Amino acid sequence: MSLRVWMCGCLPLLVLLGACNDDDDDDILGNWTRQAYFEGVARSSAVSFVMGEKAYVGTGYDGDERLKDFWSYDPARDTWTQVADFEGVARNAAVAFAVGNYGFIGTGYSDADPNGYLADFWRYDAVANTWTPVAEFAGGARQYAVAFAANGFGYVGTGYASNHFNDFYRYDPSADTWTKVASIKGEKRQGASAFVAGSRAYVGLGVSNGAYLSDFWAYDPEGDAWTEAADLSDYDGSARGYALSFAIADRGYIGAGTSSGSLRDFWEYNPVDDSWTQRTSFEGTGRNYGVAFSIGSYGYMGLGTSSGGYYDDFWRFAPLDEYDDED
């Protein structure tokens, strides 16, 4: 079973400056290294998806306006290249995923739209460097939803538009159709995080009616069913919203986010024994609403906002390396 997940500007993703973890990172596995700065303007609530060996990052909000530029990141060269601007209205708080040779982006928020919240969806062809509109999201307009891809389908759910959602929909790119699937259990939420580990997708955390959440739920796309997974708070991790997430091999990773303040702690999920283990804290400034993705054996995190500032830095995470405070 082939599954991939991208946190939207939903990756959805991240944190406010402040409450750092005082844990001794020398005793915790995982190492962060700074990568090339994102070459677009600093921003929050962007989206990202991965096709092949490159990541694509775009849209978002820079504190003054919503954006529609898009950029490609090549980890082999550690370089950013601008690609065709997104052809929908400029937005933030959208979702994105990739299936096969195409990336997909939709929903979000735009002050240029009379309704604010958006339901449109678009397909990106990296070979032709073009955008094409596809079927509108069947769940209706919303922001800060979450998305992942599994077995040739995209999945989008949760989010907010005057109220919170717990519904999920599956997108079939070959038929250009949306089908309602099982809703996530637990609270309705926005600003959730998602990753894929093994044969299941995992969705959790987020904000519901002003309360930050720490629960996680495992989704089986074959059986269209949700089961409860280990709660992050059971392992001393804090409830939070807008955390960043990605998967490497058969493990899921989440970190940063916000609750009563900004968080930089970072956690690894093992689906075999349904457990969380703390890893080296994120070494960038704490932030909210960033983006995260994985390529090969590395995870990447960057962008976002905290305390009124916006970020354009990017960091690479090596889960099997020992912490090195000199790099």
Automatic annotation (TrEMBL):
Gene3D superfamilies: Kelch-type beta propeller
UniProt KW keywords: Kelch repeat, Repeat
SUPFAM superfamilies xrefs: Kelch motif
Signal peptide coordinates: none
InterPro entries: Kelch-typ_b-propeller, Kelch_1
Alphabetized Pfam families for the sequence: Kelch_1, Kelch_KLHDC2_KLHL20_DRC7
Presence of the UniProt keyword Transferase in the record: no
Name of the featured protein: Galactose oxidase, central domain
Species whose genome carries this gene: Catalinimonas alkaloidigena
